[in-house]
Each structure stands twice: as C-alpha cells, then as structure tokens.
Design a protein that fits this description.
alpha+beta; 2 domains; 7 helices
C-alpha cells in the first residue's frame, strides 16, 4: 500500500483510530484505579565495635577486617529465612511457606560498606510497614545482645553496637508513563485495524 492510499484510508476511517485510543486509555484508567498502594520500608544499620582486645591490639588493617567479618555475618543473618520468620512472628503476622517466599522476593539486603547495611522491604499497608520495621529493629537488638554475651570468647564482638534508622514512604505509580504507553498502544492497535480493513477491502475488488 502506498503512503498516499494509506493517508486517504486514515482520513476516511479516522474514527477507528480514535475508538482504539479511547478504549485503551479507558483500560489504563481502570488498571490504575485497581493498583494497590505499596509502601516501602528502608532501614540502615551501622555496625560499630567500640572495644578492642587488651591482649591483642588491632592495627587499622585488622580492625577493618574484623569490621567486615561482623558486618558480613550480620548481612547473611538478615537475608536468612529464620530472621524473616522471626520478624513477622514478632509483628503478629502469620505466614505459611509460600507467603514467606513471596515476602523474601520483595526484600533486599545489601552491605553498602564495611560497617553499613541497607535493608528494604515492601508491603501494602503503612501501619503494617511500621510494625514490620519495628520488629526488624527489635530482632536486630536481640541478636546484638546475644553476640555481646559472647564477647569473652569472640574478640570481634567486644563493644559491639548496632544503630538503626527506619524510613517508610509510599511508592508512587508513574501514571503519566502508563497513559503515554496506553496512547501509543491505542495508536498502534488502530493502525493495525486500518491495515486489516484495507486488506479485506482490496480482496473484495
């Protein structure tokens, strides 16, 4: 089909294009109205060792290695299923194996430096996000206390302190992008239908 012929078809059947765009945009609007609000919780943990062994003075190098060791162990623990299970139990949330697996997929734990860890999780209720964040901090506090009890045998645990900071915000859906994609999809759909109309019209001649 020549461009001129297609342009003539578009001028004659422009309403097809308009209907397709309107229908797709209406679908996008319906989809946006059904999307649940998502809340993201972010926690930052700083691992601090205040004490040093009196019998073995650490050089800066060995102190850094010890910091990394403690932070690595904490990071692995924060990523574990037992930790997640304890957190949600403390928050009063009953989970089966499948739900726990789904929650772990929405959880991100990353070591960002030798002494800092970033923990991120998502949920659909702000109050629930606050409960989970508080439970995480409490579980970390419990773990820190347990580690400090081992300070007599584990030199890396001496003077261990873990500071935490929690922030919660609602994740925003990019509605403009959704509508632009809907507009593009509507136009493409309309053009395809016009080509199909042209094809069958030419066969009848």
């Amino acid at each position: 089909m020549k461009l001129k012929e297609f342009w003539q078809l578009l001028r004659q059947k422009y309403w097809v294009l308009i209907i397709c765009v309107v229908v797709v945009i209406a679908g996008v609007s319906w989809f946006n109205s059904k999307v649940e609000n998502t809340y993201e919780g972010n926690l930052g943990f700083s691992i601090i060792r205040l004490g040093k062994s009196q019998a073995n003075e650490f050089s800066d190098y060995y102190a850094t290695q010890a910091d990394n060791l403690v932070t690595n162990n904490f990071t692995k623990w924060l990523k574990s299923r037992p930790f997640a299970s304890s957190v949600y139990e403390r928050a009063g949330i009953d989970l089966d194996k499948e739900n726990l697996d789904n929650i772990l997929k929405l959880t991100s734990v990353a070591k960002v430096s030798g002494t800092d860890i970033a923990y991120r999780f998502e949920t659909y209720e702000k109050e629930r996000a606050e409960e989970i964040g508080t439970a995480i901090i409490e579980e970390v506090g419990k773990r820190t206390a347990q580690i400090k009890k081992s300070a007599k045998t584990d030199v890396n645990a001496r003077g261990l302190e873990v500071s935490s900071k929690l922030s919660i915000h609602q994740k925003s859906t990019d509605l403009t992008l959704n509508y632009l994609l809907g507009l593009a999809a509507g136009i493409v759909l309309g053009l395809v239908i016009l080509l199909v109309i042209r094809y069958f019209s030419s066969r009848k001649k």
